[in-house]
Amino acid sequence: MSTEQSTDVVVIGAGAVGENAAARVVRGRLSAVLVESELVGGECSYWACMPSKALLRSGTALHAARSVAGAREAVTGALDAQEVLARRDSFTSHWDDSSQVDWVNATGITLLRGTARLTGERRVEVTTDDGVTTLIARHAVVLATGSVPSVPPIDGLEGLTYWGTREATSAEEIPESLTVLGGGVAGTELAQAYARLGSKITLVARSALLGNYPEPAAHLVQQGLEHDGVTLHLHTATESVAYDGGRFRVTLAGDTVVESEKLLVATGRHPALAGLGLEGLGLETRQLDTDESGQVVTHPWLYAVGDAAGKVLLTHQGKYEARMMGDAVVARANGTLDGSPQKWSAFAATADVYAVPQVVFTDPEIAMAGRTLEAARKDGLNVTETSLELAVAGSSLHADGYEGWAQMVVDEDRKVLVGVTFAGPDVAELLHAATIAIAGEVPLERLWHAVPAYPTISEVWLRLLEKYGL
Fold this sequence. Notes:
The strands form 5 sheets. Strands 1, 2, 3, 4, 5, 6, 16 and 17 form an 8-stranded mixed β-sheet that branches. A 5-stranded antiparallel β-sheet has the order 18-19-22-21-20, sandwiched between helices. A 4-stranded parallel β-sheet has the order 10-9-8-14. By secondary structure, the protein is α/β, with parallel strands linked by helices. It has helices spanning about 15-25, 40-45, 50-65, 80-90, 100-105, 165-170, 185-195, 215-225, 315-335, 350-355, 375-380, 395-400, 430-440, 445, 460-470; strands at about 1-10, 30-35, 110-115, 115-120, 125-130, 130-145, 145-150, 175-180, 200-205, 230-235, 240-245, 245-250, 255-260, 260-265, 270, 295, 300-305, 355-360, 365-370, 385-390, 405-410, 415-425. It starts with a strand and ends with a helix. A hairpin with a 4-residue loop joins strand 18 (about 355-360) and strand 19. It has 15 helices and 22 strands.
């Protein structure tokens, strides 16, 4: 059966980003149809952010207790892996999206379950269990389709049944051993989670561990992994993979062979744009050229946000993009926005360039906002860095033998922060202050008046500014 339906905006993808986009449009008194082929709530809710952090949290809490005298004496056992998995299941709602569907309906968004394909300007064909529905958007079509894993061209890998991040975050049993290919955030986090749950872990990376972060911060995480028994092969190529007798055999450069029960491939992700019909519109399926409102430059009725836009593959940043995009669509529909929006306006996701916050939820954590020293210099800024060990009264109280590191990157021409990094146990809670300082372009002389409470880990701000020379 074929039907046709008109609406103001069609949003393809009902993950966190698509939900935010549709909600923002509806808030602006436009109608929206949200199309989803899998679970409403998307990758973050069921296979990424939430389950991975749930797998990590129990081990971090146990390690924290063991790091304080008086508490460590009360710790008599190891993690209960099945209880950790059960807690993980509660955060994914047991992969049941009914509560998310209820929210969509209550918000006034129309949900259509099916597979979407663009067939022309403002036209989306959705194949459902009942047939085909053609959606006609009066104002915009939004791609919020997320991202998919990038599979490396390793000999023997094709055709094997191995873990991706989805399988790793939704596993029902803890493997005896696990080889992780990839030293980025996902590979590093999951390696530590499974090591603390009892797996023998080997992590292989072609380059450095967490190479997009400052080296001293990444080194602290490396020490944490090694303390948990993870065997690291860094700056090492994987030559081939085979599966025989219920075991994976991974051959590394130099003919080193690693055997394990499971294999996790976590070597990055790319925008999920294939199969959407973009080729028929003369568009690339690798990455779309969008402005700060998410509008596709050559097709102004089409938008891309979140991982689908390929700019910053982080859930919170995608939701931010969706809010800006939704308001821009409404403003253009009302005739109050013409052309591309101004930076830092209500319609521009300017923070994507200047003030992205990100956390590696390992133990110790890395929390970073803005740009690294190298990235800032590449952008042509006249910058200096100030760094030190994170050793203040608050950190000493927080854990015995606390080890941490902090860095701030200063634009010397404007005397404002353009980047801040913290590494250490529980430093993620310091991050929003750094994000505000960067996004707000707070002058260092004014930041000096933001007095950190004593004795907290936040006192590191005072130490950084003192070392800088204030």
